[in-house]
Amino acid sequence: MALEGWLLLLVVAFLLGYIVGHRQGKVEGFREGAVFAPIEMRRATLERGKCMICGTGTRRPYDRDPVPQDQQTSVEKESPCNEPQS
Question: Could you tell me the pTM of the whole model?
Answer without folding.
Answer: 0.46
